[in-house]
Amino acid sequence: MCHVIVTCRSMLWTLLSIVAAFGELIAFMSTDWLVGFPRTPDVVFAPQGASAAAGEAYRPTLGIYGRCVKLPHLQRGVLCGPYAVHFGEIASGFWQATSIFLAAGILLLCAVAFISVFTMCFQSIMKKSIFNVCGLLQGIAGLFLILGLMLYPAGWGSDKVQLYCGADAAPYRAGLCSMGWAFYTAMGGTVLTFVCAVFSAQAEIATSSDKVQEEIEEGKNLICLL
């Protein structure tokens, strides 16, 4: 019989797991990892810099596989989209590795977020606590995310990055660029992932407490505890 068990700690863990997964997914898909130096729409790109022309200055953004630029003939604002159609077209080998590690971590986080929704009704899988299993998966995902974020700055020396950040851009040196919100979101999501991994133990304790067992023995199917 399915016993629906809802506790503050288990619901908080579920909510944080979903936030971490969506935060990392949104950051990965965003083009706002690097914010380039100011330029005009009809600027001439060159690794040594850019020659300014008439027009309102703006700052292009560059993501792991996408970018946002303003074109001279485009009157509707900034054009955003992928610059890499195929995996091999990503700016550098380091960013390709970053993509693999981040994608693996996000896949695990999304799987845990999906499973966490059903933990109210199912607390074990193959006689193993579902919270402990999910916490382990979140810990592994966090390691993947850390590896991806550590490799990401190593790709700043690529030709693609120098077009946006100038010739001074080099591995672990962003040149004229500044970090965009997506990078900080990915970092925050990674920290939250480890918080969830640790907090999963508290969710397990809350749903297997003596108070829960007493209410199950009383024949209750819906159990709500603070």
From TrEMBL:
**What would be one Gene Ontology cellular-component term for the protein?**
membrane
- Top-level taxonomic group: Eukaryota
Q: Which Pfam families match?
A: L_HMGIC_fpl
What UniProt keywords are attached to this protein's entry? Answer: Fertilization, Membrane, Transmembrane, Transmembrane helix
Q: Tell me what topology the record assigns in the membrane.
A: Multi-pass membrane protein
Task: Enumerate the transmembrane spans.
Answer: 12-31, 94-118, 130-152, 181-201
Single GO biological process annotation from the record: single fertilization
Matching InterPro entries: LHFPL
Keyword field contains Metal-binding: no
Cellular localisation: Membrane
Any keyword Transmembrane?
A: yes
Known PANTHER family for this protein? LHFPL TETRASPAN SUBFAMILY MEMBER 2 PROTEIN, LIPOMA HMGIC FUSION PARTNER-LIKE PROTEIN
Q: Which family does it belong to?
A: Belongs to the LHFP family.
- Name assigned to this protein: LHFPL tetraspan subfamily member 2a protein
- Look up and give the organism this protein is from: Gouania willdenowi
Gene encoding it?
lhfpl2a
